[in-house]
Amino acid sequence: MVLLTLTSAASGPCRWNGHWGRRRCHRPVAGGRRSMTALLQHPGYEDESLQRVAEQLPCREAQSAVLLSLMGQPQQYSYPSIFIYGHRASGKSHVMHVLLRELELPHATLSCVECVSGALLFQRVLLSLFGHEAAALLPRSASLSDFVRVYRQQCSLSPAEQTRFIVMEKAELLRDADANLLPALLRLQELVEDNVTVVLLSEIAWDKFRPNTGCFEPLLLHFPDYSKGELQQILSQDRHPSYSADFYSSYINILLGVFYSVCRDLRELRHLAALNFSKFCEPVAEGKVKETDTHKLWRNIEPHLKKAMQTVYLREVSSLQWEQMQQMEEKETGVVRGLSAHTHIELPYYSKFLLIAAYLASYNPARTDKRFFLKHHGKIKKTNFLKKNEKTSNHLLGPKPFPLDRLLAIFYSVVDNRVAPTASIFSQISSLVTLQLLAQVSHEDQLDAPKYKCAVSMDFICAISRTVNFDIVKYLYDFL
Amino acid sequence: MRELGLEDHFAEGCEGAENTAARFELCQQLWDKLKTDTEALQDELNRKVLDSLLDLTRKCSTTRQHSDWASKMRASEIPTAALVLGVNVPDHDMTFQSLSELLQQSVTPHVASVQAKECGTLKHLMKRVLERLTGTAVDDEEEEEEGAEQTSTPLHKSSHCSLSTLCDWYNAKARKSSTGTPGKKRSSPTKDEHQQPPVVIIFKDLEAFNPRVLQNFILICSLYIERLPLMFIFGIATSPSTIQHMLPHSVSSLLCIELFQSLSCTQHLATVIDKLILTPQFPFKLNGKVMQVLISIFLYHDFSVRNFIKGVQLALLEHFHSQPLSVLCCKKKQALLNVTQLGHLDLERVRQLPSFKRYVERQEHQEQVSLLTDDGHLKEVCQRLIKDLRKYHKNYYPVLRCLHTLTSSLPRYPLGKQIRELHLICLEKNVSENEDYQSAMKLLKMLAKDELITLLQRCADILQSVKSKKMRTAHVQLEELLAKFKQLDSVETAPVVEENITSPVRNLQKKTDLFQLQKTLLEMNESRRSKKLSPFEVLRNDALEFIDGLVKSHLCPPESQTLNEACYYSSSATVRRHLNAAPRTSIQAALRTPYYYIQNDSLKTEDGSVSNAAPDICIAYKLHLECGRLINLFDWLEAYATVVSAAEGNDPDSDDYGKVDEVKHSRSSARFIQAVSELEFLGFIKSTKQKTDHVARLTWGGC
């Protein structure tokens, strides 16, 4: 049992992560669960449900124990707000969810992505804590004070017998909400005078949250990443029903051997494990190899996993296509091209030239236009009109904004025949913007002399100019 | 009522008012046919992509019910179809329209399509999706009541606008459909429970969406994927890598993306031209220049097939509106009937047609007189001429296709790669006089035997399907030629020929000297010319002469046909002006020659100068054209005042000149300032800080 002194916690943030780190190193990977269940003992809850909790939270025993002790017995007041942070897929929501569900505590769980407005958030909270009638009491586009008013009214009707929990996932989005929302949530207990605790879950550390007006400091809890052994243990749990646990475990071992260096995201690893398992057990299913012959199985699967790392992991190829590829492979290694392989874009003739002109305008200094587009520009050596800051390659600095006039001036001089300035030329510019090949820099409302940036790569523009027989390199200042 | 309104608009300012009703009718008929045909064609073209998309949606609705290990592990991914449609955004609407119709018919009633412009924020996007989904689902009466109830309390509804509402709605819907069918067997409701129709959300223009909005939306959807069988379709205009640009890995890992590529728009246009333009079915035709305008708008500006069809529609409308003889532009039977109903005025119009004049000139004197004076005779002749025009079209297109098959695979494509290029050449002038045609013929002579035979065979296939006397005889002749080619194989005389040729070739390989090479080549040429032609060569020349004959007799330009004006629309300038508007050009035209717009005779001038009675802005514009980059405002004002005072007929020498001067002066300077600010608003000048009291001129040259 972890002992806590909440007196110090009330005054400022406390961190236990150092504490856990040491403990984790010494813990045996397998079989640790049974001994750890001893940790999850709390006078307020039944042993049976604690047991269930422990079973569902492998490798998160320490964290759940801390949370349990923070929560105290159901009827006791808890700390007003708890802030839990840790990387993606480190079990934050899972731990909270399992604890609250198994211990049957009243709670509201919501994701801040979903709550596009504060009103929606309030409504959700009331809905899950007090039911539909309470939620209906909120006026349209409710403010914080409306929420507090309705909450108080409701909790006077049904006073809390157990601590109520409000769990907010992706709490980093609260920073973009109304300025008063986050501070108010942090001391909601005071505001509504009820036994309520707000739990914020985030991937970002608390330091990035603290509003500059100051606020109540929540208790900070860090969920560390799973270690390789822990990942192994967790992943081995969802084994295939028709194969033995050891077999699946050895598969996970091989998988982690390949992927652990690039990816520690549990969710992603689980996905990869599911995708490649059929390939792994193929030799076993065909009867060529026994389940225990790990070396042969490894030889069979390893190149396959390497290939998966290039494609599926990057989502170049979707999982569905990957499965189809696996089936096809016996017959013919059908080349499924990834998403980034398709970069060619067909464009109308003048759009191509507009794009070329935009590229030139973005990457050439405006002063050099004379040199490139005037017939009798005289001899200007590059060294003569180099300014100090232009010595670095413009391509390294990225595209620069240019006004519409300059774009059109360059366009008319690069396009080989006379083009009337028709409305469709202008509409092509705006459609290039919607296709995200150009980016409008100035505000959309600015009708007078809008500014743009070219948003395509050198390779792309070279491919485009080849199709119209335009040697773009000759016109680029960097390659002079 | 509305129909009438349309017709009234059509009749307004119409040439030859007698038969507007008939013309309007014809125009309407043709356009309806054109429209249905293009729609059918587009459906046909998209069928493959759409079918595979439908398969995907079906599959994703069935795999969800599988409870096997692998699909359970993967269940958290949202199935997504990335539909790459090309940059011709205006055409996409139709594709999405038919896609969502097909989906609703065969897979799921729950389809919502959203556009970027209506979903600026996540809230709006969510609202649109909910609206479309719950709105479309209103089909039976109970539902409608529910829908009405919901709309009557919008207050309540919009505050509920989230996916959980959608979930509830979906579950209610599923329950209703499973219990609401008492006629079925006992087992069917449970089956229905399993068969969950997916909820498809179509993002019509992925590129235009705000990435943040899209990311958040996908994140939210992934929270509900276990309860709600969602599926996305992304409409992509550029390339699939946009998905990676827009969505970070953490979001794209929630999707299971499958790629679908639709037909490219150039292929689409080629099919449309092939099926709708290059066919004798449509009596209405475009002449070379109009065709050129439409195609260049397509290739240079927008790649949009829809706009191309709109262009054809415009031409169609203009033709029937402006050409009284367009009553003859219809099916054969009706055209013949319409000829008999032509009034005297119309017949006079026929006599005025340039093509008819040429025809008359070719006739004998007696005939000429009766053509020009006897209306009855003219009608008979017209009927014959219309039949001739029909025959011409019937023969033109098959021969065009034949020539295209022969020349489209030649090196360097002397007559173009696409059939539309060849068509343009043929419309322009006699193709047989074209240099490129000559060179194509020469290249054809160099073809190997089997190549030539396959090409000719394909030509024969084309001719076979044509129901026309001339084409049938042509087909018979071609078949005979082909049979002779095949006989050659059995006779086998080739070795003798080869013997003769190989010797100089061998010599050639030894020589490296340029002079020697030239000499040997000349020799070779000489020896070939002098040599007796082999049977194959004789036959080949026969075949090519036959083709040449076909081309010469059938591929003459339509302008040479009498009465072509009735069917061919030729005003390319009108089409260009309407479809490819040049705002600056028209502003400048208005400023330079205000007469065109104001239609006031006093503004009419001969030599392009502006009359001093013109609006102030025209005078100011005219004066500013004479200036350099920077314009001195005071000089400009002085010049302006001089012109204006001259216009008011003030003689500086008269008595009361001095009295009114003060008032006049301030008034004219006020008018001047207004004109200058108008010019600034139009973008001809702008204020500058380079010099005091100067403005900078912004436009040069004339266009």
TrEMBL record, chain B:
- Gene Ontology cellular component annotations, sorted alphabetically: DNA replication preinitiation complex; nuclear origin of replication recognition complex; nuclear pre-replicative complex
Q: Where in the cell is it found?
A: Nucleus
Q: Per the record, a Pfam family?
A: ORC3_ins
| InterPro entries assigned | ORC3, ORC3_ins, ORC3_N, ORC_WH_C
Tell me, what is one Gene Ontology molecular-function annotation carried by this entry? DNA replication origin binding
Keywords, ordered alphabetically: DNA replication, DNA-binding, Nucleus, Phosphoprotein
> Which residue intervals define the domain Origin recognition complex subunit 3 winged helix C-terminal in the entry?
584-700
Where the record annotates domain Origin recognition complex subunit 3 insertion, the positions are 340-571
Q: Which segments show compositional bias classed as Acidic residues?
A: 138-148
Please note every region of biased composition (Polar residues).
149-160
Q: Which family does it belong to?
A: Belongs to the ORC3 family.
Q: How does it assemble?
A: Component of ORC, a complex composed of at least 6 subunits: ORC1, ORC2, ORC3, ORC4, ORC5 and ORC6. ORC is regulated in a cell-cycle dependent manner. It is sequentially assembled at the exit from anaphase of mitosis and disassembled as cells enter S phase.
Q: What does this protein do?
A: Component of the origin recognition complex (ORC) that binds origins of replication. DNA-binding is ATP-dependent. The specific DNA sequences that define origins of replication have not been identified yet. ORC is required to assemble the pre-replication complex necessary to initiate DNA replication. Binds histone H3 and H4 trimethylation marks H3K9me3, H3K27me3 and H4K20me3.
Stated name of the protein: Origin recognition complex subunit 3
Organism from which the protein derives: Scophthalmus maximus
